[in-house]
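=== Structural record ===
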Amino acid sequence: MTLLAVGLNHKTAPVDIRERIAFGPDILAGALHSLAADPALSEGAILSTCNRTEIYCVLNGTRQESVSDWLARFHGLDAERIAPYLFTHVDRDAVVHLLEVASGLDSMVLGEPQILGQVKTAFQNACDHGTAGKLLGRLFQHTFAVAKQVRTDTAIGSSPVSVAFAAVSLARQIFSDLKDQTALLIGAGETIELAARHLRQQGIGRIIVANRTVERAHALAAEFGGFAISLAELGTHLPEADIIISSTASPVPVLGKGTVERALKVRKHRPIFMVDIAVPRDIEPEVGELSDVYLYTVDDLQDVVEDGMRSRQAAAMAAREIIDFHADEFLAWLRSLDATDLIQGYRHNAECLRDQVLAQARRRLEAGKPAEEVLTFLANTLTNKMLHAPSTRLRQAGRDGQADLLEAANTLFDLDHKREA
């Protein structure tokens, strides 16, 4: 029985390969059933995101290539075509890999939290379709607990490592609680969308999205419970904004000093926090000279991002120590399964011997034999039967010079301790 992780990710394969190997929701159920039908496997789970496709499975035989062959076959590809992009992790390495993935240590953005939810979904899908058994069940539950500990005991996810995250982190430093604040987001691209996501996670009170294309602003605002305006309406709504984050592709500033001065008068000089992520800049540099305005540019945030990345890298080192410990803990449980089977077999044999001798003893009692005689018979016969096979094996080991087996028996039966006692 071998634990296996096979797949590819953003580190090993370009996006065009990842797209061809991905398992969308429409084919995932069929893929799990197809995987489970492979006689080489006893359990399986599929993790598929935009950055990775990974199969976690329990292999019955020793041919690890059967999983990569199945992956290529399912997607109608030549196995040799995808082989250069695949990784294979076995047993402990597979455990460590899953723990690192779920903890955000293997993500494109170090420490990002979304992957843990995706791992939980992958496991739930495997459970729903009956492809996760005892071993994967224990592995994934163990993984969720370890990922939670990594989040709790390290700073892996607390420091900003994107400009959008840095902008929202600075906003929290200035306003502490964002539930009573209004954020004005200028632009509707990826960075602004990410900023909106972080703001909502931090409990922002209200979001306004301004964009040259109002339809795109409406789409983004609707996703985050805000409302949309055109760039021409900026002056009207600017006094409402406590936080302004701007990232457009405009060749000239979209927000000037005069407009901001008028907004401050309406606001009675309540402070405004501004982040200009655009290059070239969206906000005139002179705006930073105004009292009650905290203006940051993308260069200012870059220092915050670099500090955050250093902090997360330090946290990652601590996280890997946690992961190494818990990987060994899981492997110890896995090894104990062999001992469990052995113990069950030994107990079964002992119980059979007990039942045989007990039946003989009852027949002697029924024949009128004295109870004391029957008890002596029961004790002596059961002892002899229980010791016969081990004694025979140990005598043979002594004749064959198998010192290691004799030493193991000494430890197993705790004979030194009993002699001292």
Summary: The mean pLDDT is 91. The longest helix spans residues 298-366. The chain has two domains: 2-153, 163-306. The chain has 16 helices and ten strands.
